[in-house]
Amino acid sequence: MMKVSDTPEENPMFPIKVGGKEIDFLIDSGATISAVRNKLGPSSGKTVTTVAVNGMLMHEELSEPLPVSVEDFTTTHQFLLSPDAPINLLGRDLLCKLHATLYFSQNGIYLQVPEDRLELANRALTACKLSEDSMLCPNPVLSLSPTRYQWTPLQGDFYNDMFKELFKYSTDIEIDLMTKLVQLELVPGPRHCTAAFFTGPVPEWYAYMADKYLYWTTELHEDTLYVGKEGCAASIKLGSQEERLFQVPASEPHVSIAVAPGFYPKDLGPMVQRLRVLPRTKDFTFPLGVVSVLGDGEGWCWTLCMLRNDRTAVFDKIEGNMALQLTKNKVLEQVNSEVWAKHKNEAGLLKTCPPHKVKLKENAELPYVRQYRLSPQAEEGIQL
Questions:
Q1: Domains, in order of start, for the chain
Q2: What's the pLDDT band for 272 if we cut at 50, 70, 90?
């Protein structure tokens, strides 16, 4: 644990080795992306739109992934290259990747980065032990939950729109395929391409590898749309780095779009694997692309113009049953849909952390601290 500030007025600074060079960062939990003033390496060619202190929109570049180390903890990270920033910023993206914890006390502010995963497990258990001064009712139950690693597209539900668009050309599509399509039911979102799924503890070798890429963005190369007896899915062509992360047995990288009666989204990976090796025996051309019959009619593949553009996706980790039962969870149904983030850098909104419903002790008063003083006109406007 390292002391980063003696008083609340002093800026909390923390040294991090980036590309072998030690750099001081201002800890800024309000920043969604960590930023550096000086160019530490080549640019990735990708840009992010940011809002400056003066309120102006700025387009700033992201660096290539750079090696980052804090004590014995090492990872890689992309930084925002912001030459106009007054100081280097350690934002929430890198704080989360380092599994860092901030502690506030009368003696100053401390930051801790765990040395190993045992510390992470101990911290999770400790967090469940509530003191007598806590306002929450204790809940001693702590159970293991499924963990899924996935690539989540950032452009919203493109696939639903694509699926609906296809029906406009029903007269141009083979009748057997059209009959199959009307039987399918769209898979509820959010759409994703599963990289790995574990019902118990995540193997150490995979966790070590996946943590290096967690919250990285990549381009999903959508190959072809496949339709079989199980349903419809878009196959994904992965790059060399992403191929190492894909660890789903008897499956192929894909995005589930729709399922047939009696089947489930988990059946679509084996379907894509089976259909990909079948020969194309007949082709049909229509305005959106080409439809091919596979084998002796076991399925169809579509080469669509709409699939030619790569889609940016973020490598993410979903823990617990929240992601599996998102549409059925009564607690989550009470959460306004506007609080869910639509991409990884959306500040102040929920993304991978499910809301947790808690029961307060009787007569407990929630803490309230005013962030800054509002003008009388502003307060009057809020009341109206």
A1: 2-127 (2.40.70.10), 147-316 (3.90.1740.10)
A2: very high
